[in-house]
Specification:
The protein is α/β, with parallel strands linked by helices and 282 residues long. It is 40% helix and 19% strand.
């Protein structure tokens, strides 16, 4: 099966109080429920290509509210025009918050299209310049700084999404840390893929504490360690509840459920993950 990482190789403010809705009963005084659940549409990539509007209707019926798109063979928005996907999602009570894109020769058009949708973020989903060296990551940091300037002019926030390879080291330096150090924290944000970070042996809390406010977006996923791939919530090695309980340390504004591999039908996994989150008491 082609994973999202393989595919990528061929970035409005919502306070935590809005994300976590406190319960009113005295017995549940110090607990909260998850609301405004988001999803990365790559999770249902084939469904979106076959019937984008119909798939969005299914996601809305399940309860998903926040959306992040991803490049596809039909373009940035699965064959829909920017204003079209904006209207469809708004009519369904959903919001397109972000999109995974490439910083490439079409970058100017990518930014213009994102501005038409009204989305808040553009996330680079793969390093523009490949190579696991400090020097190359510094080159990518320069590319990101320029891309962030372009986004700012369009009232969009630029960011980068990690996989696991960014946590490799070169000359004693963690390459992901090079990106963080070489870019302006006010201009270049990070969308933390928590599954890949945890499986790489790193602690998200260390990053949240060291780089406050740098991670406004999350990819929330569970991971099967034996297969090194994503799985349904509660079936893998990631403590989903603990991560959400520490969302304030990240200053997280939006999170997107993402799953790349499935035990059965993708939409069944999508429903399972949503229901799993609804049963959590934080």
């Amino acid at each position: 099966m082609t994973t999202r990482r393989d595919f990528l190789r061929s970035s409005g403010c919502l306070a935590l109080s809005a994300l976590l809705l406190p319960l009113s009963s005295e017995a549940a005084k110090n607990t909260a429920k998850v609301k405004d659940v988001g999803i990365q549409l790559y999770t249902v990539r084939n469904e979106m290509l076959k019937d984008a509007v119909g798939t969005l209707k299914q996601l809305a019926a399940i309860g998903y509210k926040e959306l992040e798109s991803a490049r596809s063979e039909k373009g940035l928005y699965y064959g829909l025009q920017p204003k079209e996907i904006k209207k469809v999602t708004e009519d369904l009570g959903m919001t397109l918050r972000s999109g995974h894109v490439a910083v490439d020769k079409d970058w100017e058009r990518t930014v213009a299209a994102a501005a038409e949708t009204g989305q808040d973020y553009l996330i680079c989903s793969s390093l523009p310049s490949r190579g696991q060296t400090v020097g190359n990551y510094k080159r990518n940091a320069d590319i990101f700084s320029k891309a962030a300037e372009d986004c700012k002019k369009a009232n969009i926030i630029f960011g980068y999404h990690n996989h696991e390879e960014e946590f490799e080291q070169d000359n004693g330096q963690v390459l992901y840390d090079v990106l963080l150090a070489e870019t302006d924290p006010d201009q270049v944000k990070m969308e933390m893929d928590l599954g890949w970070l945890v499986l790489s042996g790193h602690d998200p809390m260390v990053y949240f504490n060291k780089y406050p406010g740098r991670f406004p977006l999350w990819h929330l996923k569970d991971m099967d360690k034996s297969k090194m791939q994503s799985t349904e919530f509660g079936k893998g090695a990631i403590d989903i509840k603990q991560l959400l309980q520490n969302a304030d340390k990240s200053k997280m504004k939006y999170f997107f459920v993402e799953q790349e591999e499935y035990a059965g039908e993708p939409m069944a996994s999508v429903k399972h993950n949503y229901n799993y989150l609804q049963k959590l008491s934080l």
